[in-house]
Structure formats: C-alpha cells, structure tokens
C-alpha cells in the first residue's frame, strides 16, 4: 500500500522465541523497524495482553464473555539514538532499529494457552508505529503460556475409586444387571504417563457387555448466565466381550496419556477438565467417571 511504502520491516521478535512461559516469567523482545526512505517516527508503543474469551450463539442471544489475565502497555525508546524535543526520531534507510521491551507475567494462576470450540485463552504482544500524517501501523505476535500443575500434591497423588450397577430390562421385564467397579492409584498425570486401571465387570443380563475405558476432555464455557459444554474422547482401551452370566477383571490395564493441554481450573468463564470414563454396556452405558488432573 502506498501509505506504508516507507516502512521496509516492522515486526515483533521475542528474545526466546520457542519458550513456553509460566507465571512470574519475564517476556522480553524487541520491535524491529527498517525504512526504505528517511522517515520520522513519532513513537513506538507496545501492548501485551492475555485474555480468556468465550462466544457462542443461542437462538437470538449472543453469549459472550471475556476475562483478562494480563495487560501491559509501554512507550519504547531507542538506545543511543537522539530524539527531538517532541520525542520523535528520524530513521534512515540502511539501518536496523530495535526498540526493546520487557515485562513480567503476573504471579499466581494463569490460564494455559488454549483454543476450543467456543472459547480460547490467548496471549500476545502488539506493537504500534506512529508517524506524522500516516495512519498508525500495528503488528501482533502471540506467545504461549502454560500454567504449571504439580501432580505430586497429596490430592493428585491420592487414589480414586467408584462403583455403579445398572438394572437392565427388556420390554419392561427385568433382565438382570451390569455392574462396574474401577480404581486408579492417583489422579495426577503428565503427558506420556500410563494410567493403570483396575476394574471389575459383571454381567447377569442377556445382553453382551463391552468393557472399555476412555480419557475424555470436558470443556465448560460460561457467559451471560448460560453454560455450554463440549466433550471429546481423546483415547480409549477395550476389553473382551462379556456374555450373560460371565465377568471380567482388569488388573493393571494401561491407557497412555497422549499430547494434552494442562487442566484449566481457575478461570471463571472457561474450564478444561479431564476424566477417565469406564463403562460396560454399549447401547445403554453404565459409566463411571473418575476425575483425573493432568499437567
């Protein structure tokens, strides 16, 4: 575009471009500017934001909510480069100008970078280039944040167990029952860990039981007093068919935790949780939900 012809390069570069940041970390970088002609720059500004956003449509209503984790603003200067009385500087072609910036992420829980069906948690740095008689030019670059969860806390190291029985009927006539009991030794897991499952399945009905366990992600979005839930099966393991009058036991059956984002539990408008779902009957499920914390 003609209005921007004097700007050859305008970009945001992080000092550690591949780093995944956590609360309290310093985010540092520079805004790089190169010009094709002699150019006066009034100022260069940066805005850093971290925001959780939720949005979905329910009939005529738009359910929308935002929560801010981070907001940082600054006006940048050039080292060893004289400025005029009004603070503006003259940039000349053939030189690379670097405006340095740096800020610390807030202490305490931060939402992990996330993109879901009805919401996201996003972090970015946006730079603004102001010049006389020209519209403000801007550029945005994202960075990733991960909220660290200590899976070695007593709560996440404690076992979880559950049991459920379902009576089955056929044409309103009782047809026995299916029972499922399951136990895992802890609730906290990391990517690459194996979940060791102990479970017992019993079938006294005339139907065939297909025992299986699955890791399920549950995303909960909250806005305008409304709630939207999205669930997704991530991985599963199956056992053998159990015919009427038979049972099956799992002792140490494993299910690996594949690539997964940490749970998001401290956000008022968006939650990401993971469950181990153990079930028996196929068409009339008898599920047991065991809550797992992931890091």
TrEMBL record:
Gene3D superfamilies: 2.60.40.640. Keywords: Cell cycle, Cytoplasm, Disulfide bond, Isopeptide bond, Phosphoprotein, Transcription, Transcription regulation, Ubl conjugation. Belongs to the arrestin family. InterPro entries: Arrestin-like_C, Arrestin-like_N, Arrestin_C-like, Arrestin_domain-protein, Ig_E-set. May act as an oxidative stress mediator by inhibiting thioredoxin activity or by limiting its bioavailability. Interacts with COPS5 and restores COPS5-induced suppression of CDKN1B stability, blocking the COPS5-mediated translocation of CDKN1B from the nucleus to the cytoplasm. Functions as a transcriptional repressor, possibly by acting as a bridge molecule between transcription factors and corepressor complexes, and over-expression will induce G0/G1 cell cycle arrest. Required for the maturation of natural killer cells. Acts as a suppressor of tumor cell growth. SMART domains: Arrestin_C. GO terms for molecular function: ubiquitin protein ligase binding. The lineage of its organism: Eukaryota, Metazoa, Chordata, Craniata, Vertebrata. The keyword Acetylation does not apply. It comes from the Eukaryota. Residues 174-294 form the Arrestin C-terminal-like domain. The keyword Transcription regulation applies. GO terms for cellular component: cytoplasm. Homodimer; disulfide-linked. Interacts with TXN/thioredoxin through its redox-active site. Interacts with transcriptional repressors ZBTB16, ZBTB32 and HDAC1. Interacts with DDIT4. This is Thioredoxin-interacting protein. It is found in: Cytoplasm. Its main location: cytoplasm. GO terms for biological process: protein transport.
């Amino acid at each position: 575009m003609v209005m921007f012809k004097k700007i050859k390069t305008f970009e945001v570069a992080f000092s550690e471009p591949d780093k995944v940041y956590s609360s309290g970390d310093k985010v540092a970088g520079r805004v790089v500017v190169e010009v094709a002609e002699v150019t006066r720059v009034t100022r260069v500004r940066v805005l850093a934001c971290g925001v959780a956003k939720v949005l979905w449509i329910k009939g005529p209503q738009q359910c929308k909510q935002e929560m801010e984790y981070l907001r940082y603003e600054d006006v940048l200067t050039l080292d060893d480069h004289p400025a005029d009385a009004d603070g503006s500087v003259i940039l000349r072609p053939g030189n690379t100008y670097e405006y340095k910036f740096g800020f610390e992420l807030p202490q305490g829980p931060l939402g992990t970078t996330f993109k879901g069906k009805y919401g996201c948690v996003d972090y970015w740095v946006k730079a603004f280039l102001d010049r006389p008689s020209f519209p403000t030019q801007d550029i945005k670059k994202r960075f990733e944040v991960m909220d660290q969860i200590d899976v070695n806390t007593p709560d996440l190291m404690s076992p979880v167990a559950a049991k459920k029985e379902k009576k089955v009927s056929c044409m309103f006539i009782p047809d026995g029952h299916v029972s499922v009991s399951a136990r895992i030794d802890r609730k906290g897991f990391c990517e690459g860990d194996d979940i060791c499952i102990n479970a017992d399945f019993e079938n006294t009905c005339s139907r065939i039981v297909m025992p299986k366990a699955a890791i399920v992600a549950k995303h909960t979005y909250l806005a305008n007093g409304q709630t939207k839930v999205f669930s997704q099966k991530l991985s599963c393991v199956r056992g053998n068919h159990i015919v009427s009058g038979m049972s099956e036991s799992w002792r140490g059956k494993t299910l690996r935790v594949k690539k997964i984002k940490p749970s998001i539990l401290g956000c008022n408008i968006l939650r990401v949780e993971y469950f181990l779902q153990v079930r028996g009957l196929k068409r009339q499920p008898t599920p047991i939900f065991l809550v797992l914390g992931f890091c």
